[in-house]
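FORM 12-B: Structure-to-Sequence Request
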């Protein structure tokens, strides 16, 4: 199975980030503009957290609060689960399933180098399965 490094090389390592003192509304607006479900929260070049649509739904809307008044730091997940480039897609899927998360920042040492979503991983698994099927069909039709 392919590694995180190989997946990032194929999909690109675009990272969308926001500061912890930004308004939650601005984070939501950026997520909508970039069509992503989460942003990394960066403070002084360091990964400080992650904010997702789920954080917004559970920590703002359900508590009757306003995204215009709250800061990202108020609802972000500060204990970020990350992966490194050498890990496999299978390991990442198991981690996401076990921790019930949908986004994984990729770090190399202390440096943030990419972001994976569950959709990225599913797409990769499907591509690998299609490749295997093509190889089997080629073998069968010899």
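FORM 12-B RESPONSE
SEQUENCE OUT:
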């Amino acid at each position: 199975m392919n590694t995180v490094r190989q997946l990032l090389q194929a999909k690109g390592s675009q990272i969308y980030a926001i500061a912890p003192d930004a308004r939650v509304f601005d984070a939501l607006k950026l997520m909508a503009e970039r069509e992503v479900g989460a942003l990394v929260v960066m403070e002084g070049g360091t990964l400080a957290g992650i904010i997702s649509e789920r954080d917004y739904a559970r920590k703002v809307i359900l508590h009757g609060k306003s995204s215009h008044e709250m800061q990202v730091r108020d609802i972000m997940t500060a204990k970020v689960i990350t992966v490194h480039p050498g890990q496999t897609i299978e390991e990442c899927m198991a981690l996401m399933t076990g921790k019930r998360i949908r986004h994984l920042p990729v770090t190399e040492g202390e440096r943030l180098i990419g972001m994976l979503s569950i959709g990225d991983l599913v797409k990769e698994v499907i591509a690998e399965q299609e490749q295997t099927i093509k190889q089997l069909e080629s073998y069968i039709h010899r």
